[in-house]
Write a structure and sequence with these properties.
Elements lengths: L4 H4 L3 H19 L3 H10 L20 H6 L15 E4 L9 E4 L1 H17 L7 E4 L7 H12 L3 E3 L6 H11 L3 E3 L2 H13 L4 H4 L4 E4 L6 H11 L2 E8 L4 E7 L6 E3 L4 E6 L13 E7 L10 E7 L1 E2 L11 E2 L4 E2 L4 E3 L2 E3 L1 H8 L5 E12 L2 E10 L6 H19 L4 E5 L14 E3 L6
Parallel strand pairs: 3-4, 3-5, 5-6, 6-7, 18-21, 19-20
Antiparallel strand pairs: 1-2, 7-8, 8-9, 9-14, 10-11, 11-12, 12-15, 13-14, 16-17, 18-19
Helix pairs in contact: 5-6, 7-8, 8-10, 11-12
Amino acid sequence: MYLHPEVETLSRPDIEKLQLKRLKATIDRCMHSPFYKERFQQCGIKPEDIQSLEDLQKIPFTTKQDLRDHYPFGLSAVPLEEVVRLHSSSGTTGTPTVILHTQHDLEEWANAVARCLYMVGLRKGDIFQNSSGYGMFTGGLGFQYGAERLGMLTVPAAAGNTKRQIKFITDFGTTALHAIPSYAGRLYEVMEEMHIDPRRDTHLKTLIIGAEPHSDEQRRRIEQMLGVKAYNSFGMSEMCGPGVAFECMEQNGLHIWEDYYIVEIVDPVTLEPVPEGEVGELVLTTINREAMPLLRYRTRDLTRILPGDCPCGRHHKRLDRMKGRSDDMMILKGVNIFPIQIENILLQFKELGNEYLITLTNLDANDEMTVEVELNDFTDDYGFLQNLTKEITRQLKDEILITPRVKLVPKGSLPVQEGKAVRVKDLRKTLI
């Protein structure tokens, strides 16, 4: 059951003992970072002031803007000649964020991803296909090295070219696939067009999904379509990439590896800790990284710590699936709405497909929401479509407290993205 039993089966007291030891070493290392050295001096904090895990709250938060303001190497805690790789965001909307890695960091990253893949039943002899982008995007190389660490035959298919992905799956006997949820749905649609039955014509058994918020209903649909078990994963480039948290075979929350990270959940407005079990913003501190440790990094991802123990025997805390990002929240008529709330409703209707688009407009100073969603099958039965539209609208209003305009569109009408799905188009910004 365990790739690293000496760590995965630690008791809560032993986990916290290891965390404190590694936290103190991390803070000492941060004193070699120009950014953190100055930050500690400004706040009047010394490394010896941190004597417990609770003392971590004395340290200010680190944000994505901090990384941008000190681009490219201002948060490095080691000389540049000790760095062997960097990853960066695209930087299409401003200064990119850069994350640096020593060889030790890359080895530990591979170990963490391998631990995750082993936890969901993957072993040497499996054939692992990765449909993530490679290069600066961490999902490609992160899963690549983790899969290789387990000794699996890996297929670095990269993103896009769906028919080629399917050819690789069928020709190479792929048993495990990594794909974002929306792209998994796209793969099935193209398989249907090619008259390929994934249950009959492939050896797929395991799917790793993540990188975009998705509902449990979407996961169930994907499992049914492809005939696989789909496991939720969480990672972000600032924390290395994939391998931060992963579901086990119980599929009841993502175990976050607390020998690598200290977890906090805070109110995104007040920044005060929230009680365990309540939703808030995920804050992470790295405690096993050399080149660029991050203290109390605000991820902007919204989740909660699940109470209780997992039957798998691991005592590392479990995170609920991501509810979205604090900066993805839509505000209409004073109501806070997340796209995942709308998806939860839409995917309960078997008549609807996987693709939808939320468009926000402003007419005469009045915010409006239009939800376009594809039908699974064409029909010209006007009465049926009218009743279906009314029921979808009613359930959406019950969930989000405002009445959207629902438009049912034919399958294939909405734009298809090879990367992360674009679910919201906010046209209000263009009218200001």
